[in-house]
Amino acid sequence: MNVQENIDKFIKDSKRVLKVSRKPDKEEYFELAKISALGVLVVGAIGFVIVLIGSLIGL
């Protein structure tokens, strides 16, 4: 494949994705926000526990 064919394929694929995609409704958006917030809390809690253990053992 040459460069022009790659560009044409990328444009064709991008148009197809944009046709299929849609804006999330309010319920779907809030569900995604809750899941993301839960993930941030879990990662923060794991980091806190690691720092706490490190400070207890003197690192």
SSE layout and pairings?
Blueprint lengths: L2 H18 L5 H31 L3
Q: How would you describe this protein?
A:
By secondary structure, the protein is mainly α. Helix content is about 85%, strand content about 0%. It has two helices and no strands. The N and C termini lie far apart (about 55 Å). The mean pLDDT is about 95.
List its traits.
mainly alpha, 83% helix, single chain
Short description:
This protein is mainly α and 59 residues long. It is built from 2 helices and no strands.
Number of strands: 0
Distance between the termini: 55 Å
Determine the structural class based on helices, strands and strand pairing: mainly alpha
DSSP helical segment count: 2
SSE string? HH
The average pLDDT is 93
Low-confidence parts, pLDDT < 50 over ≥5 residues?
none
Please tell me what the overall shape is: elongated
Largest sheet: none
Taken as a percent bin, the fraction of beta residues is under 5%
Q: Considering DSSP H and I runs of 4 or more, what fraction of the residues is helical? A: over 70%
Question: Radius of gyration from the CA trace?
Answer: 22 Å
